[in-house]
Amino acid sequence: MSAHLSLENLSVSYGKQRVIDKLSVPSLAAGEVTALLGPNGSGKSTLLRALAGLQACDGAVRLGDRPLNRRHGEAAYLPQTLPPCVHLTVFESLMVAGQATAAGLFRRHGDDEVVALLESLGIAHLARHYLDQLSGGQRQLVGIAQALIREPAVLLLDEPLSALDLNYQFHVMDLLRRETRRRGMVTVIVLHDLNAALRHTDRALMLKGGQLLANGRPEQVIDAATLRAVYGVHGRVERCPQGVPHILVDGLSHHAG
Ligand SMILES: Nc1ncnc2c1ncn2[C@@H]1O[C@H](COP(=O)(O)OP(=O)(O)O)[C@@H](O)[C@H]1O
Ligand SMILES: [Mg+2]
């Protein structure tokens, strides 16, 4: 089952403050990683929580031609701030997380599957460690494993790289792209690192003030004009010798905010 995700006239308010304003995205394709970009306070986390069904919203979120069914675990969500740990081992926590799958069935994952997933993330050596004894980066990796083992159709990750070192940042983005293609997932990742978005994602959405300013391939969305308009910086996009675009910031054009 691979279907595209679409958002139609999505609005979210906190009390009287409207934070996401009638946002529409016609199609996020299965098998593609989308970067959700924008300055601090632009509504990225709010939008992700609305997609995950954790935030009341107006408008429609559809997978293919029907509403996304969050209650049956079609979407897996990793928050920006990880919840407090329970006293379980990494392995036990994955067995629990894997009970509810996208099919809505209660499936017991074999030990081998859990170990294989931990190995693919490079954290098999942590299987017997307790969650509350891990470093921030290790917990982030386990959080990603817990989301993946649910086999969601839609994977929603809020700043999953923030606690990771350079090596794991690259490794995780690479793995997410491969798994997204292999499983035909729709993956949406909030990223601050525009260079990671340029290198590792298929599409970018640029938010500012709760509105969608751009939607397209990352190198279309991230350019000098956007850097100035959205982030208030003078910047350039250059291609490295391998042909990968990356941005350089030369100075501030005005105070963003
Ligand atoms: N629970 C909340 N209650 C009230 N206002 C909130 C809440 N969460 C976020 N906001 C406000 O909504 C706006 C968008 O926040 P958020 O979605 O966290 O932005 P981002 O993730 O892009 O930094 C901000 O102005 C923020 O202060
Ligand atoms: Mg946020």
Automatic annotation (TrEMBL):
Cellular component, GO annotation: plasma membrane
Source organism's superkingdom?
Answer: Bacteria
Q: Which residues form the ABC transporter domain?
A: 5-234
Q: Where in the cell is it found?
A: Cell membrane
Membrane topology label:
Peripheral membrane protein
Q: Which GO terms describe its molecular function?
A: ATP binding; ATP hydrolysis activity
Query: What's a BP term from Gene Ontology annotated to this protein?
Result: iron ion transport
Instruction: Name the keywords, alphabetized.
Output: ATP-binding, Cell membrane, Ion transport, Iron, Iron transport, Membrane, Nucleotide-binding, Transport
* Protein name as annotated: ABC transporter ATP-binding protein
Query: Which species does the entry assign this protein to?
Result: Chromobacterium amazonense
